[in-house]
Amino acid sequence: MKRRDALKVIALSGVAVSIAGAYDKALIVNKEDMKLQDPKNPNEFEYKHLPEISIKDKDKKGYTLIEITVGQKDIIHPSDADHWIYKIELYADDKLVGYTELEPVISRGYYSTRVKLDGVKELKSTACCNLHGNYTATKIL
Known about the structure:
Elements: H1 3-20, H2 44-49, E1 51-58, E2 63-70, E3 85-92, E4 95-101, E5 110-116, E6 122-129, E7 133-140
Antiparallel strand pairs: 1-2, 2-5, 3-4, 3-6, 6-7
């Protein structure tokens, strides 16, 4: 086998493994952007779906650690086979700067990344629940 052919086989094997672990997209039944009934006083159901944005330390290169946990007030969103947070997005001044996709059962609603916040006025995070839709939280800097 030629080297090029061997590399193709290795690459295709890696793709096959990553696809095999992916969740069934048919389980995502709600992609609506949801609004809070009372934005100043979310209820327990809404707290379970709201991302909490935490701003941590800045490194030597000027990137600030941002942590996002889905669920607030000690109300954590479940990660079951049929109900989980499948994606978390992070926006800086309405520009998508990062996201992650999550598997049910083995991962829960958490995402962290480092972002340059120089001049940024607002962070937003959207948590996407497969059953209950997309919930967005905002943090003014």
